[in-house]
Design brief:
mainly alpha; 2 domains; 106 residues
Length: 106
């Protein structure tokens, strides 16, 4: 019974070339080479998700601050509209004609 395996997706030549290139080097040099490779690979893959170093005075806090300011403005606008409508509804419930109306002369 003969069985053949599918070729390795990366290939044995890839791993043996890494071994040949690094087998005679001291560990600190191998480590520095790996860190350099990893740093470049990481930033090439995920760099688009990070802010540039010159993101302004607030840096990475800028989106959080802007979201907070926007959220505050939206909630204040909602509260103003809600209170105005509540005042009009309350005035109508007491038989007045609405919010900010002149009193009926006697």
């Amino acid at each position: 019974m003969s069985m053949s395996l599918a070729p390795h997706p990366v290939g044995i030549k890839f791993w043996t070339s890494i071994w040949r290139a690094n087998k005679d080097l001291p560990y600190p040099e191998i480590h520095a080479k790996f860190q350099n490779w990893y740093g470049h690979a990481f930033h090439r893959q995920f760099g688009r998700y990070f802010y540039a170093h010159r993101a302004g005075k607030m840096g990475a806090w800028a989106p959080l601050v802007m979201f907070g300011v926007g959220f505050k403005i939206v909630t204040m606008y909602y509260g103003t509209l809600r209170d105005t409508n509540a005042a009009s509804d309350a005035a109508l419930a007491y038989g007045q004609s609405g919010y900010k109306t002149n009193p009926v002369p006697k």
